[in-house]
Amino acid sequence: MATRVSTAVLGILRRSALDPSTKSFICRRCLHNQGVPQTPSLACRDTAFLRAFKSPLQNSIRQASSASAPATLNSPLASLGRSIGVRRSPAKLAGFFPTTNHKNVAYWLLGSAASVFGIVIFGGLTRLTESGLSITEWKPVTGSVPPTNQEMWEAEFELYKASPEFKQLNSRMTLEEFKQIYWMEWIHRLWGRIVGVTFVVPTIYFIARRRVTARMALNLTAICGLIGFQGFIGWWMVKSGLKDDLFAPGSHPRVSQYRLTAHLGTAFICYLAMFWNGITILQEKIVNQHRPKDSMGQLSRMAHPKLKTLRRSVGALLVLVFITAMSGGLVAGLDAGLIYNEFPFMGLGLTPPKKELFDPFYSHTSDQSDLWWRNMLENPSLVQLDHRVLATTTFTAVCALWAYARFVPSVRNTMTRRAKRGTNLVFALVWAQATLGITTLIYLVPLPLASAHQAGALALLTATMYLGRHVWIPKRLIARVTEMQVMASRQHQKGRITLPPTAPRTPATTSPSPASGPVYQPPKPQVRRPLRMPRMMNEPKIAPGKPGPRRGSNPPGRGE
After folding, report:
1. Which residues pair with 346 in a beta bridge?
2. In the predicted model, is pLDDT for residue 59 greater than 50?
3. Exposure check for the chain: N or C terminus, fewer CB within 10 A?
């Protein structure tokens, strides 16, 4: 009895279950053409035909795209670009920020970098004229308005009279002389405010108007914070020259060489950040203007394994040039350029006596554990020697790098044109900088030469970074070009693929409606025309249908 009940229940469930066969399904064409009498079996045949047609088409697309893809897509550089592209989040790319930067952002960044370059040089002039301590107050907003009448000038002069610099060095200074150093410091501070405003406001605009990518927006925000931090360091540096307890025993009032070097280094970093991001955007625009195949060729040369040593050398050279420039800041803060005004000797030898280089006077501990580093940073003799050694090392490194890039055939033939130009520029600037440094030392630090020497240091850093931009591997740019190349290859293959022919279909009893779409027609075979033999120089033209002269016979019109 139980067996009969279970058999009946299974039969009911089997009859009520959904039939998975193709006869129970109706395609979209049947639902759309309700007025066309068409049997489900014919619709199922249409569905099966489309399913059978779709699979070989997809396979043909895959085979065609993999067979005709450029060789660069299978290169290590392209695989690196694809791996970088996979790490990108599609949600971020399709979010608020665009995928490319506007070219106006690059021009604005380079203009801001030029403004920072100018303020660095003007700041050096402010230090050389000893005008940095003329304004004893820090007023970020109200300080932008200079004194406009005699009473305001007298009030500013009275504040300066209370400073240690006036009491020990400039006790006989008049009001007119004070105005000269006041205007130097006031212009320097106003220039800094202008740099901050002209960078922060456009940054907000470009981010709000979606002119920069997410990474570039983060970089611009970081530079804005760096500019604000630079203003704080500037006042922190000036403040060190307004207190007697911060001076070394027996020295005249000056700002701390540590704070001066920090102020100079922050300005250099701010300038290099603006310049680097500017030329990066320009390089992206140049690559986007060319075909992906040509762009990948240039990037492949930049990422060539033969340039591995050159890439590392340029990175080390950039760090060396920056450290040398910072040692120059210590020389300026200690006025170390006013001693041993000769080159290459320092006194009776190449170096001063050891007792002078490591003087116990600069040690602040009883066991003299800080003797070596205190002398390296506070002893003018050792600070100048350090700067000489670093400058000579930088000069030698640049010359060796230039010779390596010029006389090694594998490196010379692999470098791009811009990389060769950058190498020559660095080589020329290091010679000019060495000449300016030696001349400045011999002539007791004259104002024009000292200012030009400071500008040369920043110019050498700029050229080194320009060289690095064209020899270092731009990973994100490679990923972008690889993506563009894959898209172009797919579009090219999509236009070349032809639909495969199919078996003729059984005609329906009624004519199909126009809504059913056009009937697929297989492509016509291309008929090749027969090749024509080239006509001889003196062979006459033969009219169609007439036999021509035999080879070897004289042409008509000539005698036997």
Report:
1. 349
2. no
3. C
- Residue 433 in tokens: 């900088």
Higher-pLDDT residue of 97, 62: 97
Question: Which 8-state DSSP code applies to residue 349?
Answer: B
User: Looking up tokens 């820090």, which residue turns up?
Assistant: 138
Q: Tokens representing 493?
A: 């293959």
Q: Where are the beta strands (DSSP E) in 173-294?
A: none
Alpha helices in 408-474 (DSSP H): 409-414, 417-442, 447-469
pTM, entire model = 0.71
Tell me which of 76-80, 257-261, 295-299, 523-527 is least confident. Answer: 76-80
> Considering the chain, what percentage of its residues have pLDDT values greater than 90?
51
Q: How far apart, in Å, are the Cα atoms of 433 and each of 385, 403, 454?
A: 17, 19, 9
CB 78 within 8 A of CB 72: yes
Partners of 349 in beta bridges: 346
**Which residue type does 297 have?**
G
Convert 66-110 into a string of H (helix), E (strand) and C (coil).
Answer: HHCCCHHHHCHHHHHHHHHHHHCCHHHHCCCCCCCCCHHHHHHHH
Tokens of 108: 């604005």
- The confidence score (pLDDT) of residue 499 equals 46
Cα 125 to Cα 146, 213, 527: the distances in Å are 20, 38, 81
Sign of CA dihedral 552, 553, 559, 560: positive
Alpha-carbon distance of 282 to 266, in angstroms, equals 25
3-state secondary structure of 543: coil
φ, ψ at 533 (rounded to 5°): -75, 140
| Distance between CA atoms of residues 55 and 53, nearest Å | 6
Q: Hunting for tokens 């104002």 — which residue is that?
A: 447
The closest alpha carbon to 427, from 391, 404, 401, belongs to 401
- pLDDT score of 525: 62
Helix residue ranges, H only, 243-307: 257-289, 292-302
**Residues in CB range of 248: below 8 A, 6 or more apart:** 378
Listed in sequence order, the residues at least 6 apart from 282 whose beta carbon sits closer than 8 Å to its beta carbon are 103, 106
Q: What is the pLDDT of residues 487-512, one digit of tens each?
A: 767 776 766 544 455 555 555 444 55
